[in-house]
């Protein structure tokens, strides 16, 4: 259950970071994305936002799992001494 909660929290952070990154791309009109999506409704923006959300969520989940592994490794290294 802890792992599921960790994954959901990481995905929530990923969605927020993905939304912020997509907004920066659209406001900054990078590669004319702002103009291309201006009249298209929600679908083109969702097509940008969802992949970024999954990417940032996966990176956040991996970061948290690796941080948990580092703590466990330190406990085992200290026990050997």
**Shape descriptor:** elongated
Q: SS-based structural class? A: mainly alpha
- Rg result: 18 Å
Percentage of helical residues?
A: over 70%
Specify the biggest β-sheet. none
Q: What string, H for helix and E for strand, traces the elements in order?
A: HHH
Calculate the terminal CA-CA distance, rounded to whole Å: 33 Å
Task: Summarize this structure as a short list of keywords or feature phrases.
3 helices, mainly alpha, single chain, 0% strand, 81 residues
Description:
By secondary structure, the chain is mainly alpha-helical. It has a domain at 41-81. It has helices at residues 2-27, 33-37, 42-80. The longest helix is centred in the C-terminal third of the chain and has 39 residues, at 42-80. It is elongated. The mean pLDDT is 87.
Short description:
86% of the residues lie in helices and 0% in strands. It is an all-alpha fold and 81 residues long. The protein has a domain of 41 residues.
Question: Topology of this protein?
Answer:
Elements: H1 2-27, H2 33-37, H3 42-80
Helix pairs in contact: 1-3
